[in-house]
């Protein structure tokens, strides 16, 4: 048992993008532990198989779905496959994301395009694809993984910050569009969480970062997974268009 909040998602179906590693794997495991059937989406099929094996090994239900979130045709196919397989679709977590850091004067077109495409366009494509089945159900939960970089910016991350600020704008607008169908759309904005993405910063920078965080530590992936679980649960049924920071007080 890893979840620190208790909720029952039995009979519900979830899609989690970027589920092969890092936060996405923890989120997929948490939703499965709460009883949801989880479609695990990722481009990295090797690690994706490990996520699915871990969920099944713990008694949960999961299916691997190889998919590049920027491929509109494949995204639509995945959503159709999920609805066909499980007959329902209740939860979408748009988590797949990348960084390609560089200061603005050195930012390459490819670095800009890759980050905007995966982080923002991928979130748009999956959100658009699930909207109809969720509208039909008259219930749904969409949770987008943004970042504190999308709220306060971060030097060297113009592309990433713009993509995450875009995700926040998308969240707030779609929340308004889908509210009448009982679909909530929220974002989580993690600060520095201990994953491969932050390990790439190196120990020296991580030490400096830790000093800036009022709670004095990097976040644990489970801190994010628990927040996602809360937003997916019935307890969050009156919360929509919200951005929940999970940053140890960094942006307080
Ligand atoms: P991660 O460990 O790098 O995992 C990201 C996963 O997404 C990987 O499995 C990656 O596959 C996959 N992916 C990349 N491009 C994809 C694509 N086009 N289609 C489908 N899947 C794709 O990242 P993380 O740290 O867990 O971050 C997850 C999310 O949280 C991201 O949106 C990130 O921006 C956000 N976030 C993270 C932090 C943090 O401190 N870690 C803080 C704030 C926000 P590959 O293995 O092939 O790369």
Whole-number mean pLDDT? 97
How many strand segments? 7
> Largest sheet, if any?
7 strands, parallel
Q: Which hetero ligands occur in this complex? A: NADP nicotinamide-adenine-dinucleotide phosphate
> What string gives the helices and strands in order?
EHEHEHEHEHHEHHHE
Note poorly predicted spans: none
Task: Just give the CATH class.
Answer: Alpha Beta
Estimate the helix proportion, in percent. 40-55%
Specify the CATH homologous superfamily: NAD(P)-binding Rossmann-like Domain
Description of the molecule:
Helices cover 48% and strands 15% of the residues. By secondary structure, it is of the alpha/beta class. Strands 3-2-1-4-5-6-7 form a 7-stranded parallel β-sheet, with helices on both faces. Helix 1 packs across helix 9 (221-232), helix 3 runs parallel beside helix 4 and helix 4 packs parallel to helix 6 (158-178). The model has no long low-confidence stretch (mean pLDDT 97). The protein binds NADP nicotinamide-adenine-dinucleotide phosphate (NAP). NADP nicotinamide-adenine-dinucleotide phosphate (NAP) binds at residues 17-18, 20-24, 42-44, 47, 68-70, 95-98, 118, 145, 147, 190, 192-193, 195-198.
């Amino acid at each position: 048992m890893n979840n620190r909040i208790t909720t029952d998602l039995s009979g519900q179906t979830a899609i989690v993008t970027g589920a092969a590693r890092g936060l996405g794997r923890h989120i997929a495991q948490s939703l499965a532990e709460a009883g949801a059937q989880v479609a695990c989406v990722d481009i990295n099929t090797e690690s994706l198989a490990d996520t699915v094996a871990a969920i099944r090994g713990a008694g949960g239900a999961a299916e691997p779905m190889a998919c590049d979130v920027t491929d509109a045709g494949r995204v639509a196919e995945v959503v159709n496959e999920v609805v066909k397989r499980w007959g329902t679709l209740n939860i979408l977590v748009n988590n797949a994301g990348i960084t390609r850091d560089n200061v603005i004067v050195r930012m390459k077109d490819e670095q800009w395009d890759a980050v905007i495409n995966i982080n923002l366009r991928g979130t748009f494509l999956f959100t658009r694809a699930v909207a109809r089945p969720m509208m039909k159900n008259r219930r749904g939960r969409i949770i987008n993984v943004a970042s504190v970089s999308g709220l306060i910016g971060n030097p060297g991350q113009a592309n990433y910050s713009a993509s995450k600020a875009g995700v926040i704008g998308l969240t707030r607008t779609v929340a308004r569009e889908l509210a009448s169908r009982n679909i909530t759309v929220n974002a989580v904005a993690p600060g520095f969480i201990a994953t491969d993405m932050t390990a790439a910063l190196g120990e020296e920078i991580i030490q400096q970062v830790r000093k800036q965080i009022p709670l004095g530590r990097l976040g644990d992936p489970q801190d994010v997974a628990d927040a996602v679980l809360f937003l997916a649960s019935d307890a969050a049924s009156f919360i929509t268009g919200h951005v929940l920071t999970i940053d140890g007080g960094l942006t307080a």
